[in-house]
Amino acid sequence: MQVYKVGGAVRDRLLGLPVTDVDRVVVGATTEGMLAQGFRPVGADFPVFLHPKTGEEYALARTERKSGRGYGGFTFYASPEVTLEEDLIRRDLTINAMAEDDQLNLTDPYHGQRDLEARILRHVSPAFAEDPLRVLRVARFAARYAGLGFTVADETMDLMRQLSESGELQALTAERSWKEISRALMEDHPQVFIQVLRDCGALKVLMPEVDALFGVPQPETHHPEIDTGLHTLSVLEQSALHKQPLTVRWACLLHDLGKGLTPEEEWPRHIAHEHTGLKLIKAVNERFKVPKDCQELALLVGQYHTHGHRALELKASTLLELLQSFDIYRRPQRFEEFIVACEMDARGRKGLEQRSYPQADYLRGAAQAARAVAVQPLLEQGFKGPELGEALKRERLKALKIYKDNA
């Protein structure tokens, strides 16, 4: 049997990037032969084994045939007769369809190295169109390698458009979709992921609420970029430039969904978009079964981001309500992520990327002032139950008034 490194390990080595995950394919082997050498089987759908000493994965060379809808609708065939070239042709992109042996001898039947040098993301074969998940994967790779100048080949974009129009994207499970979306949002250029999805028509299918933002104008006074969709891309870009976590990036993507519901006759103003957008944010969260922490922050940022921008003008009572909405006493990190998301929103505007955002430190100071109010003196005064809660609220309000007067 012959063992080869394949896919990302080969691609990233040739690009001069760190190699983190190594996939191996075994040609000329059988399941029985792998077991006899001590390999442990782990693949449910096709033969994948763990090395007896290193625990690394080794997959038998295989072919696949479309047998149903969606990314899971495939029948796999693995045998010693399957060649390396046959295994590689089932892969999505030419840059992922290269292999190398232990001596770094490259096997590149589909010209992946040429496309690496040309900075092109190109599908390997027409079978690309059989797997709708590949639309998301290509968009994710575009986001990952945008900084190196990679773009999607025209013919590959055509296939992605066909997939978007075919109805196959609806066959993707929430879990698989979210896995790709969340990974893409954590790339260096997540805005490229959204743009590529829009260019091929997939955004309209997967997240029509986000797609609807493009072409919707905002007041030029506050938004020199005018277009709400472009603003959303810029906010997402800022969140990546500032190395924000997934929770913040997801909130940045969804924060302005309400503007897509504004009647045209009211443009470019978007009165109460914070509230009208909540049902859309909930719908997107539910569609992809988004993790709870991402769901919660997206809803809170959607509802309160304009409060963040107007923080210096808020009354002490409104400020207290804002702090309590975030449960800053038990979950201080969530409020910090809200502040950062608001700052990304403020910076995600054409020509204002380097603007200062004094609201951030002001809100942090307000939270600190409210948290500094001690409970023990109130307990010693005999307050308990609901009365204790009201007394604590009064003391925190006093603290915020003092903070506001001295800020």
From TrEMBL:
Cofactor(s) the protein needs: Mg(2+); Ni(2+)
Gene3D superfamilies tied to this protein: Beta Polymerase, domain 2 (3.30.460.10), cca-adding enzyme, domain 2 (1.10.3090.10)
Cofactor notes: Magnesium is required for nucleotidyltransferase activity. Nickel for phosphatase activity.
Binding site for ATP: G8, R11, R91, R137, R140
EC number(s) on file: 2.7.7.72, 3.1.3.-, 3.1.4.-
GO process terms (BP): RNA repair; tRNA 3'-terminal CCA addition
Record-listed Mg(2+) binding positions: D21, D23
Pfam families: HD, PolyA_pol, PolyA_pol_RNAbd
Reactions the enzyme catalyzes: a tRNA precursor + 2 CTP + ATP = a tRNA with a 3' CCA end + 3 diphosphate; a tRNA with a 3' CCA end + 2 CTP + ATP = a tRNA with a 3' CCACCA end + 3 diphosphate
Keywords: ATP-binding, Hydrolase, Magnesium, Metal-binding, Multifunctional enzyme, Nickel, Nucleotide-binding, Nucleotidyltransferase, RNA repair, RNA-binding, Transferase, tRNA processing
Residues annotated to bind CTP: G8, R11, R91, R137, R140
Molecular function terms from GO: ATP binding; CCA tRNA nucleotidyltransferase activity; CCACCA tRNA nucleotidyltransferase activity; cyclic-nucleotide phosphodiesterase activity; magnesium ion binding; phosphatase activity; tRNA binding
InterPro entries reported for this sequence: CCA_bact, HD/PDEase_dom, HD_domain, NT_sf, PolA_pol_head_dom, PolyA_RNA-bd, tRNA_CCA-adding_enzyme
UniProt domain HD: residue ranges: 228-329
Coiled coil residues, start to end: none
NCBIfam families in alphabetical order: PRK10885.1
Family: Belongs to the tRNA nucleotidyltransferase/poly(A) polymerase family. Bacterial CCA-adding enzyme type 1 subfamily.
Domain-level remarks: Comprises two domains: an N-terminal domain containing the nucleotidyltransferase activity and a C-terminal HD domain associated with both phosphodiesterase and phosphatase activities.
Role: Catalyzes the addition and repair of the essential 3'-terminal CCA sequence in tRNAs without using a nucleic acid template. Adds these three nucleotides in the order of C, C, and A to the tRNA nucleotide-73, using CTP and ATP as substrates and producing inorganic pyrophosphate. tRNA 3'-terminal CCA addition is required both for tRNA processing and repair. Also involved in tRNA surveillance by mediating tandem CCA addition to generate a CCACCA at the 3' terminus of unstable tRNAs. While stable tRNAs receive only 3'-terminal CCA, unstable tRNAs are marked with CCACCA and rapidly degraded.
SUBUNIT field: Monomer. Can also form homodimers and oligomers.
HAMAP family: CCA_bact_type1 (MF_01261), CCA_bact_type2 (MF_01262)
Protein name: Multifunctional CCA protein
Originating species: Pseudomonas koreensis
Taxonomic lineage: Bacteria, Pseudomonadati, Pseudomonadota, Gammaproteobacteria, Pseudomonadales
